[in-house]
Amino acid sequence: SDPALFELVQREESRQEDNLELIASENIASLAVRQAMETVFTDKYAEGYPGKRYYGGCEVVDEVEKLPIERLCQLYGCEAANVQPHSGASANMAVYFTFLEPGDTLMAMNLAHGGHLTHGSPVNFSGKLYKIAAYGVDPETELIDYDEMHRIALESKPKIIVSGATAYSREFDFKRIKEIADEVGALHMCDMSHYSGLIAAGEYPDPVPHCQVVTSTTHKSIRGPRGGMILGTADAIKLINKTVFPGLQGGPLCHVIAAKAVAFLTHEGFRIVSGGTDSHMMLVDLRPFGVTGKLAQEVLEHANITTNKNAIPNDPESPFVTSGVRLGTPAVTTRGMVEADMSFIAKSIATVLRNHSDEGTLNKVKAEVTDLCRRYPIHKF
Q1: What 3-state class would DSSP assign to 48?
Q2: 65-110 pLDDT, tens per residue?
Q3: Which of 105, 118, 166, 217 is catalytic?
Q4: In sequence order, which ranges of the chain are alpha helices (DSSP H)?
Q5: Is-catalytic flag, 306?
Q6: Average per-residue pLDDT in the chain?
Q7: Of these residues, 17, 26, 45, 364, which one is catalytic?
Q8: DSSP element (H, E) containing 319
Q9: CA-to-CA distance for 244 and 81, rounded, in angstroms?
């Protein structure tokens, strides 16, 4: 009934089918998740929580909301959860608004070292409302310097210490961070958005035993719908619930809540920041190739390889140019690609960057990438 929109949907389907999506924050929702978001639950207003709604006719959506909460508590071993946040950013906001007052100190990872926008960027609400004490990585090892974190915490006395990042590929020592938080009287919050699927599968350290609160998106490595969630102790979630509604949001997205319920680069000459990865993503220093992150993102996209430019620690380039790219595997492994395919992808990336001005080479790689993508179709129905 809407030809213009339908044509755009078809174009996006084609783009996804024929492109290697290597953006670490993207994945491919399952058919079941997409079907859940298409249900009549999109029509229902349900301000409040199960059993305490401000609208009538909520007996079914009450059960819908209970389902992912029960599954989350079982999956992650937490006491309670809130599945109403519309995004990871709003989940983080809910925690901050619950436990901080404007002007209080929030400690989180330096954005230039891998931290997220909501971890204290001066252009974000987090950096505008709170004093930010940033910890970072050792300039030599490019691993988190926990001794320096301890020193900064003792000096700044934050009320919340945030673990988790958007472009740090190594493991966090959640136990050590909890010890530091306890010593200075801070709440330890983990933003596990990038690692949630790996944590659920037991492939990455579990922050839940060492945190009062854990936030996450529901779409990255967990492969659900776009949205957010908050896990924590029963006492913490009881307070957070009041912040999410009525403090920050109105009606929850019932259809999305329903859906919530359902390195092979080093030998090609790349330098991996910190020397490796412990997760689904890696940060690549492009300076050995003599290209910037901005240029790399542009030429790789020409070859149907989607990435995002990203600053590296102590980056000499501006945040709009950068010296690195962030690569992640959720979307390609969801398609079914395996180790041999990753080797091909790494070689393709290297070929593009070494020949970024050679249109013939770029077109050849594009054809090879398209062939690979069509061997692993996304939309099989």
Answers
A1: strand
A2: 999 999 999 999 999 999 999 999 999 999 999 999 999 999 999 9
A3: 217
A4: 3-18, 31-37, 59-76, 88-99, 125-129, 146-156, 174-184, 196-200, 234-242, 254-261, 293-302, 330-335, 339-354, 359-375
A5: no
A6: 92
A7: 45
A8: none
A9: 12
Phi, psi of 225 (to 5 degrees): -75, 165
Type of residue numbered 186: A
| Token couple for 116 | 């997220």
Per the residue annotation, which of 53, 170, 178, 226 is the catalytic one?
Answer: 226
Let me know if 191 is a catalytic residue: yes
Is 44 in the active site?
Answer: no
Catalytic residue among 220, 260, 309, 366: 220
For the chain, counts of helices (H) and of strands (E) = 14, 15
Read off φ and ψ for residue 189, nearest 5 degrees: -115, 130
Q: Could you tell me the pTM of the whole model?
A: 0.85
Q: Is 59 one of the annotated active-site residues of the chain?
A: no
- Distance set, CA 205 to CA 165, 179, 192, 216, 268 (Å): 14, 16, 10, 15, 29
Tallying the residues shown for the chain, one arrives at 381
Helix axes 234-242, 88-99, angle to 10 degrees: 100
Q: Is 226 a catalytic residue?
A: yes
**Catalytic option among 17, 18, 26, 47:** 47
Active site residue 220: yes
Q: Is the dihedral of CA 22, 281, 197, 66 positive or negative?
A: negative
Answer for the pair 185, 156: CB distance below 8 angstroms, yes or no. no
For residue range 175-186, what is the model confidence (pLDDT) as tens digits?
999 999 999 999
All residues at 6 or more sequence positions from 66 whose CB lies less than 8 Å from its CB, including other chains: 50
